[in-house]
Each structure stands twice: as C-alpha cells, then as structure tokens.
Amino acid sequence: MSAKGPILIVGLGNRYRGDDAVGIIVAERIRAEFPDDITVLSEIPDGAVLIEAWDGASLCCVTDCAVSGKPAGTIHRFNALERKLPEKLFSHFSTHTFNLSQAVELGKILGKLPEQLKVFGIEGSNFKAGVEPGEEILGAAEAVIAEIKKAIEAERNAG
Amino acid sequence: MKNRIIKVDYLARVEGEGGLTVKIKNDRVSEVQFNIFEPPRFFEAFLRGRNFTEAPDITARICGICPVAYQMSSTHAMEMICGAKVGGALRELRRLLYCGEWIESHVLHIYLLHAPDFLGYEDAIQMAKDYPDVVEQGLKLKKLGNDIMIKLGGREIHPINVRVGGFYKVPRKEELTPFLERLKWALDASIATVKWTAGLAFPEYERDYEFVSLRHPNEYPLCEGRVVSNKGIDIELADYLNTFEEEHVEHSTSLHAFVKGRGDYLAGPLARYNNNFDKLPEVAKQAARDVGLGEVCRNPFKSIIVRGVETIFACQEAIRIIEAYEQPDKPYVECVPKEGIGHGCSEAPRGLLYHRYKIDDKGLIKEARIIPPTSQNQKAIEADLHDYVSQNLHLTKEKLTWQCEQVVRNYDPCISCSCHFLDLKIERE
C-alpha cells in the first residue's frame, strides 16, 4: 500500500567541513537507494524551506551533525513532535535565519508539520574544511541509514 | 550619573563577531564603537590567479542570502573588460533572477528579523503565536522568491546557472508562466505587507543621510546605472574608487567606507527609494502614498516599509518580464577576455555592491576588489547609534539594548541576524 503522504528525507550540514557532512552523506545514500519515490533534500538554505518541505509529509527523517561533548559517533535520536529539540545541539543554517529546533517550533505554531518527524544527530568533533568525516561518524551514519530505511519500509507498509 | 561606559563584549549570533561600546561623559555620548570581528576577506586574495569565468561562482560564496548580487556585480565587471553587452531577454532574465533574490531577502528581513522588534517579540517564533497568518504569509512570499531563484539559478543558495555572458541554460516560456499566478498573489500580499508594516510604531528619528545608490534612466535599478547620491554624486562605475574609500579602524576588522572628503553614507533600500522613487512602477508608488510614505524617507526605522515597497516592485517587475519573455536562441553572449580593468555595481537587497577586477590577456584575474553594502554602511550604523543613544540616555538598560539592536537591524546587515546579538553592559562610573 502506498504511504498516506510523501516521505521526505533531509540531510543537513556542510559537505566540505569534515564531520558536518554526515547529514548529507546519509541523505544521499537514501536517495541512491530510493531514487524514484522518496523526496530527498540535502541543500537546505534555511529553516523556512524545511517548514514548507515537510508540511503534509507522512514521514520526515532529518539527519544532522550534533555537538554536545559526547564521543564522536554518538547518535542522538528524537521524536521531534513529542520532544523539543535542544536548540544548541545542531548548528544554524546561517546566522540570518532559524535553526532546525526553531523550524520545528514554528512548524508547530503554524500547523505545518509532517505526521512523523524523526531527527538523528550524529555527534561530530572535527569540522575542519576539506577533510573527510571520521571513521566513527561514518559508522554511525550507516546505523542511521539502516534505521531510516526501516522507517521508510514501515511507513510504506502502513495502512 | 554623568559618566558611564556601556560595553558589549560579544554580540551573539552575528555573521562575524561584534560588540558595542558606548562611552558617556558628562551625560553626553563621547564615543561609539561598533566592533566587528569578522575574518578578513580572503576572497579578494584567492580570486587572483583564477580564470575570469570563475568570478561569479567564487564570489557567490561570499553570501548565502544575496549570492545573485555578487554574481551580477562580477559578471558585469568581466563583461565590461571583454566589451560584451548582455541585452534583450538575457538581461531581462538577470533582472528576474534578481527579483527572486529581492523578494526572498526582503521578506525574510521584514517578517522574521525586523517585525518582531516593533511588536515587542523576542523572535519570529514568539511573534507567530499571535500573528500566525502574518508569518505564514511571509514564508509563502519567501518561498516564491526562492523558487524563482531555483528556476533561473539552479538553486537558491549559490546559484549554479549564472555565467559571464548570461546563463548556462535558459528556461522555456512555459516554465515561467506558472509563476504568474503566484506572483499576482504575491503582489497583493506585498501591498498588504506595506499596509501592515506602516501600522507599526516607529521612533521619531531622522538624520541628514547621504543616500548612495545606482540610478538608471529607464528603470528602478538592479544591475546597471550610474552611482548617485542625494548630495551631488553622479559618477560612472569607473570613478567609484575616486569617490569612495575604505579604511581600517582599530576597533573593527570590518572596513569602514566613506565618501572622500565627507564621511558616512547610507546604501540600501532607503537610498534606492529616495534616489529612484520616480522609477518605481505605479502600483508601488501608490502603495507608498496610501500609507503616507513620502517620496523621500529619512527615518531608518521605516526601512521596513520601504522593503515592502521594493517587494511590490520586484513582484510587478517579475510579472512584466515573464509576460514579455521570449526564449533567446542562445543562453549567453560570448566573452573573449583581454587585458583590462572592469567595474560592476549591482543593488544587493541591502545596498550597493561594487566589484573591480583586473585580468590579463589570458583571462586570469590579477586583482580583485569587492566592497559590499554591509561594509559601506558601517560608519552610518555607528553614526546612527551615536545619535540615537544620545537622544535616549534616559531609557532603561534593557530598552536601550533592544533599540540599539533595532538601529542596527534597520540596515539588514550581514552582522545582525538574530534577536539577541547585543549583550549590552552598563558600567557606571
């Protein structure tokens, strides 16, 4: 059976800044494995675009690099509809607009949210320009990819 | 207390780092320093040695909010060197792309960054609880601007479809006509925006600014024209550096621009509006008249209304361009490099953006000079702060802090981006 609404997978971050690329890596792997029927976004300019993009989706999974001081590769998981995202865990898109946490809060106020909003934060430590993400980050990315694929299948099979 | 030092060490969440210091002696403001700690503009250095064709892609990375401005200033400068003229439908497509950027940038600022100040909210999120329809309208307008940029530029951040000479690919007519319905809605929404912003409470404040902008004989300026001011400047782009200068000040890593022999000046929507009111389309002029905004406005707090008027212009201009559009045979004009110097000025949403390049006969960049509007407005911002604080020393610390932030946000600079970027300390002597 088809999903009730579109499924949206979002990867946030900067592909050129070490561990900050992890969200984009996750999104692009999902895009490669589900090329035709899943919407994948990995070039998000600001939180306002997110709100418009996930509005009405039956499932939205967002992955971004996180910084909380925990060991690199630690995975933070949130059901963002039930639990407020820690504002300082994820980086800002830009200093001109609001971040992921604020996008969720604004989406709640405006009633523009997906039916499910799963957020994955993969703890990073090296954000130097031009370096590859660390091994622990890539390992965590694989785990998150597997979880997202499972969520997609579950949503597709849902009545 | 006659003597005070108001010191802000670190402005949180600004593009670059900044602080504010206000020294008060004998109940008079003796000094204001708007300290910006942003990193040096290495762009001017690492452009050297690159091919002239790379300038629009490299300079677009200077800003994620107004990349089109950098692309237009750089392409025009390079085309000047090559002796190439981009006209007709390609010129119109450039204006259309710019309209998209103006819409998304102006609306972002009006609704999400500036309006909360006037209504007493910490940020747009708090404002949305009481004004959900207003914020939603703003987001819808912003999306339209973004979508125009995606259609013409390939993506909204650092567009990839712009090249020296034009574009890599141009749209078919039928790809643009679907925007007309949304733009007609946006035109009405922009008129409503002007009415709504005009109802906000504005401090009574004016200064005798020198307003600097482009001026074109036939249109409201975006990419072309002469550089003019309300105090007599009327120059070709090649004379820009003979008229304006940048200096480094000890308390800031952001260079301060000034008119040689004079002082600070203001670039941006207020300058464009004041210098070019006659070139606005009638629908924009009428919207301004309807809310009592004269042909000249010197209150920087009312720049929020002017941005709304310019959003009307951008919507109307986009409609005009799309309705008249015929797909050109070729997406670009050939540009053959030769040794020379070129200048480009375009009107970024927040003001005049000047580029100057020198290239060799192989097309390699030998020199690059980029003067963004934020840099040009630094002295005006400091002057406003000095003036405004002088008139409002009686305010509480909290109120004064808020209004100092608002003074800076009037300029929609790339240094002021969230509600609590100022941490104002008051030290009483």
Overview of this protein structure:
The complex is a heterodimer of chains A (159) and B (429). In chain A, 34% of the residues lie in helices and 18% in strands. Chain A is of the alpha/beta class and 159 residues long. Chain A has one domain: HybD-like (Rossmann fold), CATH 3.40.50.1450. In chain A, strands 2-1-3-5-4 form a 5-stranded mixed sheet, with helices on one face. Chain B is α+β, with helices and mostly antiparallel strands and 429 residues long. Chain B has 15 helices and 15 strands. In chain B, a hairpin with a 6-residue loop joins strand 1 and strand 2. Chains A and B meet through helix 2 and helix 3 of A and helix 4, helix 5 and helix 6 of B.
CATH level-four homologous superfamily name of chain A = HybD-like
Task: Report the sheet-strand fraction of chain A.
Answer: 15-25%
Distance between the termini of chain A: 7 Å
The level of helicity of chain B is 40-55%
Number of domains of chain A: 1
Spatially, the strands of the biggest sheet of chain B line up as 3-2-1-15
State mean pLDDT of chain B (0 to 100 scale).
89
- The CATH architecture name of chain A reads 3-Layer(aba) Sandwich
Question: What is the overall pLDDT average of chain A?
Answer: 90
Which chains have the largest interface?
A-B, 19 and 26 residues
Distance between the termini of chain B: 7 Å
